[in-house]
From TrEMBL:
Subunit structure: Homotetramer.
SUPFAM superfamilies linked: Ribokinase-like
Functional note: Catalyzes the dehydration of the S-form of NAD(P)HX at the expense of ADP, which is converted to AMP. Together with NAD(P)HX epimerase, which catalyzes the epimerization of the S- and R-forms, the enzyme allows the repair of both epimers of NAD(P)HX, a damaged form of NAD(P)H that is a result of enzymatic or heat-dependent hydration.
Residues reported in the UniProt entry to bind AMP: 179-183, 207
Protein name, per record: ADP-dependent (S)-NAD(P)H-hydrate dehydratase
Catalytic activity: (6S)-NADHX + ADP = AMP + phosphate + NADH + H(+); (6S)-NADPHX + ADP = AMP + phosphate + NADPH + H(+)
Needed co-factor(s): Mg(2+)
Family, as annotated: Belongs to the NnrD/CARKD family.
CDD domains: YXKO-related
List of residues binding (6S)-NADPHX: 40, 90, 136, 208
EC number(s) given by UniProt: 4.2.1.136
């Protein structure tokens, strides 16, 4: 098992050059948030901006888009070309509308790299392109059940996270980032461990922030992923490391809120580039 530290994370960061424009830095598109969970969209969008995306698009219900814009007017709330997608945070597959299903499927079929989170995880096996699945243990249990692993409990996954994350990666052909105090990233062959520096991260919305950071990482490296999809493991681990470091800064030893974690991501990136 590989252990991911600051040194490994640094290798995947690049500051913009004079020749870069917003597109060269990577456009992230998010299909996230819903009437029930609008905040997840705001958190993921903020994180994608702070992690260095050249542009952030958000596709979702009008009310969700309005909340995203109220927080981050830089966001483009229209569909368009992207270098990477973030799909599913703040959505519920049980109540998925036909319209949302169509938008998600179209994104998955585009062939660009995608972070597949929360309410889109049941679609993990569909479409083309590199995939980074970001379940917590309960979501991984549900994903494995849909793949035929009946009778598995969340506790089973927590007792042997490496085994179950590897199995999900092998069965789906995706890279799996299993969230927790110790985050595992695996493509079925490599297994990378990212230890969180603070347990105050165990609070609502921090997973939505992680998805936004991961989306920015995939977008920034979309061309390299097309040449070698194996680097999605490195990019997912780097996103988890940045997320942990941002959580440590947001906490300062005490409680944190997810939006502050997203805000701290920019300083963590600056520290890695210094
Ligand atoms: N601000 C927001 O809009 C947020 C939206 N979120 C979204 O919310 C959706 C659901 O995510 P979750 O991971 O919460 O849902 P899950 O359905 O994956 O997990 C909920 C689990 O927690 C258990 N549970 C619920 N309340 C509990 C309690 N009081 N004590 C003990 N166990 C309890 C349930 O039995 C269930 O097993 C996702 O789409 C996610 O992205 C979350 O990220 C939280 C923040
Ligand atoms: N005990 C813990 N210590 C450190 N980090 C944790 C702990 N529990 C969860 N996390 C991290 O917090 C985030 C929670 O994500 P998730 O479960 O999707 O929550 P939410 O859906 O509320 O955003 C993940 O990045 C996970 O790795």
């Amino acid at each position: 098992m590989e252990h991911w530290t600051r040194a490994e994370a640094r290798a995947w960061m690049r500051a913009p050059a004079a020749t870069d424009d917003k597109y060269a830095r990577g456009v992230v598109g998010l299909v996230t948030g819903s009437h029930d969970y609008p905040g997840a969209a705001v958190l993921g969008v903020e994180a994608a901006h702070r992690a260095g995306a050249g542009m952030v698009r958000h596709v979702g219900p009008r009310r969700v888009g309005d909340l995203v814009l109220a927080r981050r007017p830089e966001t483009v709330v229209q569909a368009g070309r992207v270098q990477a997608w973030v799909l599913g945070s703040g959505t519920d597959p049980a109540g998925r509308s036909d319209a949302l299903a169509a938008v998600l499927q179209e994104a998955l079929d585009e062939g660009v790299p995608a972070v597949v989170d929360a309410g889109a995880l049941d679609l993990a096996g569909t479409g083309d392109g590199a995939r980074l699945l970001t379940p917590h243990a309960g979501e991984l249990r549900a994903l494995l059940a849909s793949l035929g692993e009946d009778g598995l409990t969340r506790g089973d996954v927590e007792a042997d996270p490496e085994r179950w994350a590897r199995l999900a990666a092998t069965r789906t052909g995706a890279t799996v980032l299993l969230k927790g105090a110790r985050t595992l990233v695996t493509d079925g062959a490599r297994v990378v461990l990212v230890a969180a520096p603070t347990h105050w991260l165990a609070t609502a919305g921090t997973g939505d922030v992680l998805a936004g950071v991961a989306g920015a990482m995939l977008a920034a490296h979309a061309d390299a992923i097309a040449r070698d999809a194996g680097i999605v493991v490195d990019l997912g681990a780097t996103a988890a490391w940045i997320h942990g470091a941002a959580g440590e800064r947001a906490s300062g030893g005490g409680p944190l809120v997810a939006l502050e974690v997203a805000e701290q991501v920019a300083d963590v990136v600056a520290g890695l580039l210094a």
